[in-house]
């Protein structure tokens, strides 16, 4: 045995280092694989037993047409969080624009009374079994100024358990919204609205949308274009005229007596 081998066993040490690094990389890759498998297996479990998780079919399109009031919403992006923090109500109208497009008109009342309006024409899919509507531009109106924004997105609707409910997922660029609506006229039962919040959060978990920052409707806030609980309009009030009362002419003035 030489002095060099006693003082500086470089080669064996180098082999041990390489072996240690190799084992570490193998361990890390194995751990990452296990985590991915665990996540994949766990994700479907979050949706077990939940309604509102399947997409509606084209035959149910008529169920979503009409006027709707947003009662709960969550988002996955800062842009969405900023909006949800600052609105007091959101009203949506859905109608058939043509046989191949659905028009969505959204009016948001911001805290402080400022309103804006979005209008989107969404194209029907060619595959009606995969019922997801697409759009490529948005008309934005605020303070009377009209802006056409080049925005691409996808909208699809989830099955619901009541005729007066609508669930929508609205994806645009990096921002995704999960939105739950009540049909206008069925939006003021605050106790019932609060009962559904737990279900909404469970569905958000299922769809991997955080719900730390959400919008909830208070049941009374007005909308940009109408009141939450419309009052009777003048034309709805029937005015019954009073019956005519015959007028009696006053008696003639007395004639002066002659002297």
Q: What is the CA–CA distance across the termini?
A: 172 Å
- Going by CATH, the architecture of the domain at 58-227 would be Beta Barrel
Strand content: 25-35%
Task: Sum up the overall morphology in one term.
Answer: elongated
Total E-strand runs = 11
Could you name the CATH homologous superfamily of the domain at 58-227?
Answer: Calycin beta-barrel core domain
Topology-level CATH name of the domain at 58-227: Lipocalin
Counting copies of identical and different chains, the oligomeric state is: single chain
Organism: Xyrichtys novacula (Pearly razorfish)
Subcellular location: Secreted
Keywords: Glycoprotein, Secreted, Signal
Main location: secreted
What would your notes on this structure say?
With 259 residues, the protein is of the alpha+beta class. The chain has a domain at 58-227: Beta Barrel (Lipocalin), CATH 2.40.128. The chain has helices spanning 3-7, 10-45, 78-86, 190-195, 197-206, and strands at residues 66-75, 87-98, 101-110, 115-123, 133-135, 138-142, 145-149, 153-158, 165-172, 175-183, 214-216. The protein is elongated, with a radius of gyration of 33 Å.
